[in-house]
């Protein structure tokens, strides 16, 4: 029975947990090439702490977890944690967001874990040179290996996260939709947000939802709108004869808050009611100061109750402006 409700009538059943703030890529839209501030290891939640937090939340009604970061696979022993987590009988789904660089060697093992239903592979281009420009690393071949493996997986649903970057990769939007022609892939075009670790760039140039859909409509005579589950962050479509689907995530213009069912825990254990808040309390410190599971439950129930109505309210309540944060520190 779910016990996590907010005062706006929303039920929370979905946790996004950041495994680490570190990453093996340096995507332009996420962090600077050098100088991103990573925390000391002891400030990160341990896997034991993550397990306990997830266990307690799952007893309050959370049944879906997304593991993200930073890059989850760069943390030593992530696979063991994944296995441990999948024994939690309250969880129905465990999904992962990854850049795919370290993924190939783990995929056969991951396919054996029943609760891993889908992997979101972040890929903003199909061109090796452009990949290097965007990510500042030369790992394209490894990511393509992950893509090929996941395309043929009968077990794992492949979702591709494509951050739409004005002046960088908008000419590939149609190429990505064409990937859905013969494969059951869900491509998701994400509005770029200003969380790049260095500060605001010119968001007048932003390719927002309207620009993206108008661009797609110019290329296809019929686009079918799909009905999505209530809490979906993407507005979904398909080209009628194509096997897969595509969606647009209005991450920056924030039109999906009404049905939000999510909370986040950062890699340092900050509890976030909203992507745009600055962290409501440190679960890590609470645990390390001796809180028991009932204390934790109490705190989660009370905190979720105050979940802000939407991302704009959350942003307005911040003490420090968020534009200089990196998505890898926030936990994407
Ligand atoms: N490293 C993993 C990856 O890239 O898939 C997981 C963490 S990453 C922060 C999670 C997602 O956030 C990725 O799909 C990434 O493309 C997206 N992301 C990062 N910075 C973003 C930004 N400034 N605007 C929109 N999406 C962003
Ligand atoms: Fe790393 Fe993901 Fe950020 Fe790219 S988007 S730098 S892969 S955390």
Summarize the structure.
This protein is α/β, with parallel strands linked by helices and 332 residues long. The chain is 28% helix and 17% strand. A twelve-stranded mixed beta sheet has the order 7-8-9-6-5-4-3-2-1-10-11-12.
Mean pLDDT: 92
- The class by helix and strand makeup works out as alpha/beta
Integer-rounded radius of gyration: 19 Å
For the report, how would you describe the main beta sheet? 12 strands, mixed
Classify the beta-strand content into a percent band: 15-25%
Strand order of the largest sheet: 7-8-9-6-5-4-3-2-1-10-11-12
What pattern of helices and strands is seen along the backbone? Answer: EHEHEHEHHEHEHEEEEEEHHHH
Parts with pLDDT < 50 across at least 5 consecutive residues: none
Count of alpha/pi helices: 11
| DSSP summary, beta strand count | 12
Ends distance:
28 Å
State the helical fraction.
25-40%
Q: Tell me, what's the shape?
A: globular
Could you say which small molecules are bound to this protein?
S-adenosylmethionine, iron/sulfur cluster
């Amino acid at each position: 029975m779910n016990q996590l409700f907010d005062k706006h009538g929303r039920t929370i059943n979905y946790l996004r947990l950041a495994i680490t703030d570190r990453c093996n890529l340096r995507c332009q839209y996420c962090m600077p090439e050098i100088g991103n501030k990573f925390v000391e290891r002891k400030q990160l939640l341990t896997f034991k702490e993550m397990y306990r937090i997830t266990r307690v939340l799952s007893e309050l009604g959370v049944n879906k977890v997304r593991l993200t970061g930073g890059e989850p696979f760069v943390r030593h022993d992530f696979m063991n944690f994944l296995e441990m987590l999948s024994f939690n009988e309250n969880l129905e789904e465990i999904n992962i967001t990854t850049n795919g660089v370290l993924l190939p060697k783990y995929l056969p093992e991951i396919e054996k874990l029943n609760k891993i239903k889908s992997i979101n592979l972040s890929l903003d281009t199909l061109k090796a040179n452009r990949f290097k420009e965007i990510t500042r690393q030369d790992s394209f071949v490894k990511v393509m290996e992950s893509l090929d493996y996941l395309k043929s997986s009968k077990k794992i649903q492949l979702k591709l996260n494509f951050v739409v970057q004005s002046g960088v990769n908008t000419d590939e939007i149609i190429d990505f939709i064409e990937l859905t022609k013969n494969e059951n892939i869900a491509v998701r075009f994400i509005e770029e947000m200003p969380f790049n670790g260095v500060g605001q760039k010119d968001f007048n140039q932003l390719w927002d939802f309207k620009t993206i859909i108008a661009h797609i409509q110019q290329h296809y005579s019929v686009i079918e709108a799909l009905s999505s589950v209530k809490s979906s962050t993407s507005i979904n479509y398909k080209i009628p004869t194509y096997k897969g689907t595509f969606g647009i995530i209005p991450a920056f213009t924030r039109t999906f808050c009404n049905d939000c069912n999510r909370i986040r825990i950062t890699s340092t254990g900050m509890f976030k009611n909203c992507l745009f808040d600055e962290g409501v309390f440190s679960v890590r410190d609470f645990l390390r100061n001796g809180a028991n599971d009932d204390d934790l439950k109490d705190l989660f129930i009370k905190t979720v109750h105050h979940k802000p109505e939407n991302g704009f309210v959350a942003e307005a309540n911040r003490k420090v402006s968020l534009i200089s944060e990196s998505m890898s520190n926030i936990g994407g």
